[in-house]
Every structure is written in C-alpha cells, then in structure tokens.
Amino acid sequence: MSEFVLYNAPQSTCSQRVRYTLHTKGRAFEEHRLDLFRGDQLKPEYLAINPNGVVPTLVHNGTPVVDSAVIMEYLEDILGDVAPLRPRPPIEVARMRAMMSFIDEVLTPAVRVPSYNLAFLPHYQAMTEEEFLAVCESKPLRREFLLKMGRTGFPQSEMDEALGRLKRGIDRMAHWLGECGGPWLLGAELTLADIAIIPVIVRMDDINLGHLWADAPQIDLWLRNIKATDAFAQTYYHGSLLTEKYPHLQSLQRTAHVAA
Ligand SMILES: N[C@@H](CCC(=O)N[C@@H](CS)C(=O)NCC(=O)O)C(=O)O
Question: What's the CA-to-centroid distance between 241 and ligand 1, angstroms?
Fold first, then answer.
C-alpha cells in the first residue's frame, strides 16, 4: 500500500484542495476516484473510514484523516520542510487560519448553491420523490441541504443570497491581496489560504461567475498565477471542471460570452 491513499472525486472542490497540496509537496499518492452520484461515498466500507460520507479522505500509512482543511494542515505538519505552505511567525499563521476559516464559512458553502442548481440538479430530478427522499436520508452531512434544494432547485431568493455571500467573499479576497500587495494572499509566499480558496475561484470562473471580480484585477492576476503552477495542471486533470463533465454548462458559458 502507498504511504498516501486519497479517496476523492475529480470535480469535488474539497478534493481539489488536497490534490493541489499533495502535488505542491511533490508527493505521489494512490488515487481512488469515487462516483458521488453512484453513492460510493455512502458505502459501508467508505463510511468506516469517513463517517461523514463525503470526500476527501486521506489515508496516511493506514490511518484516515478527514476534512479537507484538516488534511491540508496535517500534510503541512508532516511535510513542512518540503515547499512550506505555512508562514513561520505565529501571528501570520493566525492570520492565515482566519482567512481559511472565513473561506470555509462564507465562500465554500455559498458556491455550492449555484453549483447544485446549474450542474447537479438534473441528476436528482431524474429520481422519483421516494428515491430522492431516500438519498437525502442517507447523507450524514448534506441531508438538510439537499432537502432544501428539493427536486425543483434552490429558489431565486437562495441563489441571490448565495451570490451576495460570494460577492462579499470576493471583496474580502481583493482586500487581502491589496493589503499585502500580492501576488499571494499573505504576500510573497503561497500558503494554505491560497490553496483553500483555489477551488472556489476556479468553480466560479467555470460556472460563469467571474464577473463578480470584474473590478478587482488583482484577483484575475492571482488566478492567472495559480493556473501557471505545475500543481494546478496536475490537480485539474480532464473532468475536474464542471464544464468538462456537464456539456450543457459549456453552452451556458458561450451564451453569456455572446451576451457580454
Ligand atoms: N468539510 C468537508 C466537506 C466535504 C464535502 O462536502 N465533500 C463533498 C464534495 S466537495 C461531498 O463529498 N459530497 C458528497 C455528498 O454530498 O454526498 C471537507 O472539507 O472535507
């Protein structure tokens, strides 16, 4: 068995954070790609290593570590000498963790709402009401979220609320970059805070929400810098973007470009 075994999904934003961290550290890992719509994450053998029934899970030398932010910190704890992703002064570490906490409280849950409405909803619409309720009941972490979405999708009011939160998050990111002068969130060195926000920004870009940072060229530059890293290409292999998995989103993007 490899030292690192990663259970994840290509298009899962939480998984992408961990893939990016492992690639930045140059660590090979055995990758298991779960099919989240087939319910691989809810099978008893997976629940035994991650009782939350979500990806990612990193198994290190046989012991599971769960939750993407925890896994990133764990990797830094054990591999801190290789491509360090945490500043040295404790006050800077506190600042980095406060950013990560903001990202997880505001941006990460907010981006889920348009993602589900635009890309995942048809999967649930194809079910009968009974099947849908059974899937909701089987989810340890996402039961209420899915029930709220229902089979008609989140209403416009929820979408507007999510977009409002995304905009507030983007403004905060622009402020962080402006404050330190970039190119990364804490200044000259890439840190775990940058990695924590990558999948949110890439997802927003992918589902055509990049206009939310039209007045913040520092975010455009940050995204270009991220995309130029080796770890980015390794992390975002084909099938990691929603537009690659769901062709109907590509036509949405084309329409928006024409309209823009
Ligand atoms: N806080 C967890 C959240 C993990 C999570 O929500 N994972 C999603 C994919 S990004 C998932 O596995 N969803 C499967 C499902 O809802 O059944 C983390 O950061 O690891």
Answer: 16
Sheet holding 30-33, edge to edge: 30-33, 4-8, 57-60, 63-66
Task: For residues 185 and 152, give the distance between their C-alpha atoms in angstroms, rounded to a whole number.
Answer: 38
Q: Where, residue-wise, is CATH 3.40.30.10 in the chain?
A: 4-78
Confirm or reject CATH 1.20.1050.10 for domain 90-259, answering yes or no: yes
Residue nearest to atom 12 of ligand 1 (CA): 54
Task: Give per-residue pLDDT as tens, 139-166.
Answer: 999 999 999 999 999 999 999 999 999 9
Contact 42, 139 (CB under 8 A): yes
For the whole model, what pTM was predicted? Answer: 0.96
CATH fold of 4-78, please?
A: Glutaredoxin (3.40.30)
pLDDT tens digits along 202-242: 999 999 999 999 999 999 999 999 999 999 999 999 999 99
Binding pocket residue ranges, ligand 1, CB within 6 Å = 12-14, 36, 41, 53-56, 67-69, 139, 142
At position 46, the amino acid (one-letter code) is: Y
Ligand 1 atom index nearest CA of 34 = 12
55, two tokens = 């990806």
In the reported structure, the alpha carbon of residue 79 is separated from the centroid of ligand 1 by a whole-number distance in angstroms of 24
DSSP β-bridge partners for residue 7: 32, 57
Ligand 1 centre and the CA of 50: distance in Å? 11
Ligand 1 centroid from CA 56, angstroms:
7
Structure tokens at 252: 């949405």
Which residues of the chain form CATH 1.20.1050.10? 90-259
CA distance 11 to 20: 13
